[in-house]
Design goal:
Order of helices and strands of chain A: EEHEHEHEHHEEEHEHEHEHH
Largest sheet of chain B: 8 strands, mixed
Largest interface: A-B, 43 and 45 residues
Number of helices of chain B: 6
Number of strands of chain A: 11
Oligomer: heterodimer
């Protein structure tokens, strides 16, 4: 039986982890490779690097991080941030990423997703959707895609886009609620559910985890195939093992390999 | 097997670092530190290797074109594997390439080593998502040396899958193990000196390293 995945996400800037892992005595908490090894040992099901490096010139640093991680960790790795071309996708895959996340570029140019899927297979193309609720409380819920860290509205309906892009080459969707991100008030379950119901591909819930019950709700109520979280793991609030035990106790199928 | 050489074929298919590292690690774990793991795009190196690994990440047609673009590679592989009987393992699309043909985006000829087609996964339960992505257990259809000592079944270890297409062998006897995902999805095939896994042993932690170690010791 396929298990629900727990995916810690590390923000990487200029080759260094932003808000580094602080739950273990790491020699260097800012080193993404050290953090990746720690999560590998802790039983994370996948790992996600989100590159937030501003300049395109610093891409070499990221590639080095990805290749050193792939050499040290036998766990699946998704890398996103700043991917604009099919060549960017190829470079990351060759460096050792198993899946590549495409965000703003997929919104501007859905054809990029189709081309990358045809070249590398849809299974390695993750489209990241950052959405904000734009309907009033008394209206039918509606979410719009925002780019540039939630600053720029696009006028594109998030659920419609999810449907279209998943039929057009995305093998997985990473759905982040920009309303909840950083609030620790739980995933936007209505958003997650609206998208999981609308698409055939797996959905990763993201944005707003404050505790372990939020992870359970993301799967049970949101319908997500995987849950992504950052701070609850990085700051030692919970271990991946605790999260898995909690989710298993709630009746979810988890991988509990020794 | 002391001092053996294992050729991992490099034909421009993504992510070979972790495959190389996983084979090196498994060789050390198996007490065969003098095993040489070579990432190569040279047909003569493949021809001379004791064991051959065909990885593969990507779309079927693109991988096939990549393999064909290395002059003499398919011939060298075929000679070493089919005529000389060298142990061979295909991983993910590398396993799918062993089939007669692939039906992803366009119809593409495979190597024809394991008769059957590679077609889309269609789970009986429409609520199940495609790609089949993540960690699943293995249901063993027949014993195989590559699975020796590995806990399989519902309560066994997990293997990492990430695929939208699957190989359906024409001969049921070629299937060694499957994963349950709205019906059986072929997880591992084998015939004679050839084996293939749909899952990624290099990403499958304990199960994967144990399987690779078994491959390095395998004497078909």
């Amino acid at each position: 039986m396929l298990k629900t995945r727990i995916i810690p996400c590390l923000d990487v800037k200029d080759g260094r982890v932003v808000k580094g892992v602080q739950f273990l005595e790491l020699r260097d908490a800012g080193d993404p490779v050290e953090s990746a090894k720690a999560y590998d040992a802790a039983g994370a099901d996948e790992l996600c690097f989100l590159d937030i490096t501003a300049s395109h010139e610093a891409r070499g640093t990221l590639l080095d991080v990805v290749s050193r991680t792939a050499e040290a960790c036998f766990m699946p790795l998704t890398v996103g941030g700043g991917v604009r071309t099919v060549a960017d996708v190829r470079t990351l895959l060759l460096a050792g990423a198993d899946k590549v996340g495409i965000n703003t570029a997929a919104v501007k140019n859905p054809e990029l997703v189709a081309e990358a899927a045809e070249k590398f297979g849809d299974q390695c193309i993750v489209v990241a959707i950052d959405a904000k609720r734009v309907s009033a409380a008394n209206e039918t819920a509606r979410w719009e895609i925002f780019t540039h860290g939630g600053r720029n509205p696009t006028g594109i309906d998030a659920v419609e886009f999810a449907q279209k892009i998943s039929e057009g080459g995305a093998g997985e969707l990473l759905v982040t609620s920009m309303d909840r991100d950083g609030t620790r008030s739980g995933y936007d379950l209505a958003l997650t559910r609206a998208i999981t119901d609308a698409v055939r591909v797996p959905v990763i819930a993201s944005g707003g985890v404050g505790g372990l019950d939020d992870l359970v709700a993301g799967v049970r109520d949101g319908g997500a195939s995987a849950v992504l979280a950052a701070s609850i793991f990085h700051f030692g609030q919970h271990t991946v093992g605790e999260a898995k035990a909690h989710m298993a106790a709630a009746g979810l199928a988890m991988r509990l390999d020794p | 097997m002391s001092g053996q050489t294992v050729a991992i074929i490099d034909y421009g298919s993504g992510n070979l670092h972790s495959a190389v590292k996983a084979f090196e690690r498994a060789a050390r774990d198996a007490g065969e530190a003098d095993t040489r793991i070579v990432l190569t795009d040279a047909p003569e190196t493949v021809a001379a290797a004791d064991r051959i690994v065909l990885p593969g990440v990507g779309a079927y047609a693109d991988c096939r074109r990549g393999l064909d673009s290395v002059p003499g590679m398919v011939e060298a592989m075929t000679d070493a594997v089919r005529r000389k009987g060298r142990p061979f393992i295909g991983i993910c699309v590398g396993m799918q390439l062993m089939a007669s043909r692939g039906l992803e985006y366009e119809e593409t000829a495979g190597l024809g080593w394991i008769p059957g087609d590679v077609g889309p996964i269609v789970p009986a339960d429409p609520a199940l998502k495609v790609p089949h992505m993540g960690w699943n257990t293995l249901a063993v259809d027949r014993a195989h040396p590559l699975l020796d000592g590995i806990e399989t079944g519902r309560d066994g270890l997990h293997a990492y899958f990430v695929h939208s297409f699957a190989l359906k062998p024409a001969e049921p006897a070629d299937v060694v193990a499957h994963a349950e995902y709205g019906g059986p999805v072929t997880a591992m095939v084998a015939r004679d000196n050839m084996a293939g896994t749909q899952f990624h042993p290099e990403k499958s932690q304990r199960l994967g390293l144990a399987l690779i170690a078994n491959f390095l010791r395998w004497r078909p």
